[in-house]
Design brief:
five-stranded antiparallel β-sheet; mainly beta; 9 strands; Immunoglobulin-like
Length: 186
């Protein structure tokens, strides 16, 4: 009788273990502890837009004054290496939390110091820009360290159901800064 009860308990434990294996794959999503009764937004991966880095904007160089495209005059060179994302869905907004890894190194004309890297995160569907923002990320390069690694994070809120067809782009913003409007003299 005891052996029969033990085998039933073992069979039930095996079924519970198998049931746990049949839960849907979340694609590596972090469980935020959200439940139907909880006010915490749910972490989702199924509709989380991919992050893309274009070759043309994944490298950033600063040059000594007056020099441009002269490899001997590079002060700093930065590159974006890898990216990931996590999405959180609320009633009205899909927030894409973008994380990018990069490196900065000094060039022949450079030395230790701090560089501000202009990193743009843009979310768009086929026709509209849903989010676009440039962040100046300060990175300090130490003497004798070679390449200095950095991590950049940005939250990009996308309103409504537009996130279903969105793509997220991350890159260095190489456009010149807009000049401030001149004040009129009276």
């Amino acid at each position: 009788m005891v052996g029969h009860t033990v085998s039933r308990i073992a069979a039930f434990a095996g079924l519970l273990a198998l049931a746990g294996c049949n839960t849907p794959d979340t694609g590596g999503a972090i469980d935020a502890g959200a439940s139907a009764a909880s006010a915490t937004p749910a972490v989702i991966q199924a509709k989380c837009p991919q992050v893309f880095m274009r070759d043309a904007t994944s490298v950033y160089r600063t040059y000594a004054k007056g020099a441009k495209d002269d490899p001997t005059q590079i002060i700093y060179q930065a590159s974006l290496v890898d990216s990931t994302r996590q999405c959180v869905q609320s009633d009205t907004t899909l927030t894409v939390n973008v994380v990018v890894q990069g490196r900065v190194t000094t060039g022949p004309a450079g030395g230790p110091g701090t560089i501000n890297l202009p990193i743009r995160v843009t979310a768009s569907d086929e026709n509209n820009t849903l989010f676009s923002e440039v962040t100046q990320l300060p990175v300090t390069v130490q003497a004798g360290t070679g390449a200095q690694q950095f991590i950049f994070t940005k939250s990009a809120p996308i309103n409504g159901g537009a996130g279903d067809f969105a793509k997220v782009y991350v890159g260095f913003d190489t456009a010149p800064a807009a000049a401030a409007p001149k004040k009129k003299r009276k």
